[in-house]
Every structure is written in structure tokens, then in C-alpha cells.
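Chapter summary example: a protein plus EPZ.
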Amino acid sequence: MEKFVIEGGNRLEGSLSVKGGKNSILPILAAAVLCSSSEGVELYNIPDIVDMHVMTKILQSLGARVKYKNNTLLVNVEDLQSYTISDELMREMRSSIFLMGPLLARLGKVRVTYPGGCAIGPRPIDLHFKGLEAMGARIKEEKGYIMASASRLQGTEIHLDYPSVGATENLMMAAVLARGKTVINNAAKEPEIVDLQNFLNAMGADIRGAGTETVRIIGVEGLGKCSYRIIPDRIVAGTYLMAAAITGGRLLLKGIIPVHLDAVVAKMREAGVGIEATEDSLEVIGGRLKGVETVRTLPYPGFPTDLQAPIMALLTVAEGNSTIIESIFENRFKHVNELKRLNADISVKGRTAFIQGVKKLYGAEVEATDLRAGAALILAGLAAEGTTVISEIKHIDRGYERIELDLQQLGAKIMRI
Ligand code: EPZ
């Protein structure tokens, strides 16, 4: 199995541009299933990450034709032959559940198994089912499979018990070809929801309100071709900002949308990191790290749960104490024990982690338990004295395109072996 070997202690210096977002391309690829035109869709700024390739494999298993070259995806789903997603493909990635809405909308039926995904706690899909049933889908389970069918989905008013990102996206896609108007209340407001709305509207959908808690969709007869550039990955951007900060370095990040990182920049400034912003770039200019009273993860525009592990790494070497409350997922502290192997001083009580800053981290052998935990271990390894070896880096490749090449370009001593 591949590993990362990091010699810590180098300050990162330089500039990077960030590619399109993993959490944009996954729902947008699922939404491409709604497009029955013979021309298909062209997608730009697509990161070369494992999860994107898994989603294209799923589309191909349904009959789609997909081509990926130089960060551009051509997707044609004119002849959709199947409504069943195989067990192993479902297990590979939780986001395969995004296909329920589009397949129900296009074919009137879908057969999936419970999705797999990272180990950050049981990730129910009850809100997806509740919304789809409210639109007239009949969902039943048989022998571990979920079978859903609907002659034609009917628009309706839905109130999400929780602003779930995935449920909001699944229901938006289901509503696009439904009869009449659908309103999703208490919708998630993440930028990736706005990206999905813009992509669907580019194909001829009629959606408004993404980015607010109320999304309104008017059903249309069909969707046509389009070319679309997805938004940059705000979580990759935040990860790189923290990599510069933890090494006391300087980094200019270009081609990003700074406003998507408002909560992250505010918290990093509170932790003593100097950051300058323009309308399409952010620059870390150094600063002495100090502990912060509280980092609480929240739905957007609050502090993103996907940067909870990376900021924890940063705070382990800040001066003073910090508290992190993970309010989105019930079990997203798997990185704590691995950080402690590098000499971090962290204790966990329920959903709260208490961090006591230490003078130094020391290299050790650690294991990536999920995508963002792996990213946090890279950050800690960059700052640690000595050598850090990270195993199970396949998790990291799910959401970061060759992260070691970007970091090497900034002066980090990191090797993939
Ligand atoms: C999306 O996951 C992201 N994944 C996650 O990113 C991200 O952490 C999460 O949103 C929160 O921002 C993609 O976009 C592909 P949720 P999703 O539905 O849709 C509960 C990463 O590292 N819930 O908003 O699964 C759920 O258990 C990944 O890039 C229900 O109870 O997130 C969780 O506690 C990790 N019932 C909370 O809501 C449901 O039907 C948030 O889940 C659905 C969700």
C-alpha cells in the first residue's frame, strides 16, 4: 500500500491555484443523468481525484459514455440502459446515493444498496427517502437492496428536519423533471448547492433560491446539453492555507472564491494567522499561532466540518488552549489518536475536543482513517520534527489531486512511496 513520508520543518513558500470541488462534481455528475440530449455535457475544472473516477464508473455502468482529459469531462447519457447500481460501486462511495433522484426522475425507478463512504459515523439517508416519498416515490427494502419507483414524481412542499447537503441535492435533482412546483424548506446553503443549481439551469431547469434556506424548482419536460465550469474546492483551499500556516510559511492561493472561506479565514485570523484577501485570492503571510476559544462546526456559512481535522492539527502547535466542537457528525475525531502519536495534547469528551498547544510535534508512523483526517496528518507531519510516515493514503487521494506534488512545489519534503 502507498504511503507518504514527510520530513518536517520546512516553511512552505509560493503560490498555488486550486481546481474544481469534489463536493461539486459528485452531485453534478449525478445530475448529468437527467440530460437525455444526444450532445451531452462538457464539464471544466474537474479535479483528477478518485471519487470523481468512481462516479464516472457508476455512470458508465448505467450506460453513459464518459471521457476525461486535462481536467475536462465529456458526459453523454443519451441512452440510459439500467436503473441498478451494483453493490460494490455503492460501497465505494456514499455519494452514489445522489443517483436516486435523477434515476427516479428519468426512468421512474432505481435500485441501490445502502451507501458506503468514510468512517465518520453512521450516515443515515432518511431525509433523502422522506423527501422522495413526499414526491410520490414508493421506496421499499428487499434483501439489502433499496427499490424505489414512481410513475412520475409530483412537485410538493418539503421541510427538511436538518439542512442535509446530500438530501437537498438529491431532492433538487428529483424535482427538475417532476410535475409542477417543488419547494425545499430548511435546505442546505453550501456553495456546492448553488453550483448544482447553476449547472441544472444551464441544461434548461428552472430552479431558484439555492444558497438560501428555501429552494424552489419548477418541473420541466426535459434537459439539454450544456458546458459548465465547476467552482473551486473551498476545502482543498482551506487545507492548503493551514499547511502554510502550520509551517510558518507564506502562500498565495489563486483562482479561488474567498467568500466561500469567510468562516475559515476568520477562525485562522483568530488563531494568529495573517491572511490577506482579494476578490479571487487569499494569501497567508505568517503569524504566531495562538489557541482559539472555540471552533464549532456548523452548516454553511458556519465553520465547515471538513476542515475540523485540519484546523485541529494547526491548533496542536498553537500557544495556549483551544476547544473544537464537532456538531455535524457524531464520530469525526478518528484523527485525534493519530495526532497524539505525534505528541499532540488532545482530550475528547463526546463531541468536544480539548487541545493544549505543545512546543513541538515529533514524527511517527500514523494512519489516515478518512479523507480529512489524512489531510490533518499531512499538516502535522509538515510541522513535526523528524520523519512522519502516513499509511492508508488512498483516503487522501479520494479528495486531493496528487497533494504531494502541490506541497513539493511549495518546498515541502514529502514523498509518495
Ligand atoms: C456532504 O455529505 C459532503 N459530501 C461531506 O463531505 C460534508 O462533510 C457534509 O456534506 C457536511 O457538509 C459531499 O458533498 C459528497 P449531510 P452529506 O447530509 O451530504 C445527517 C468530505 O470530506 N443526515 O449534510 O452526507 C448525517 O448523518 C465529505 O468531503 C441525516 O441524519 O452530509 C450527518 O450527521 C465528508 N439524515 C449530517 O446530517 C440524512 O438523510 C450532515 O449530513 C442525511 C444526513
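Key point: The CA atoms of residues 335 and 373 lie 5 Å apart.
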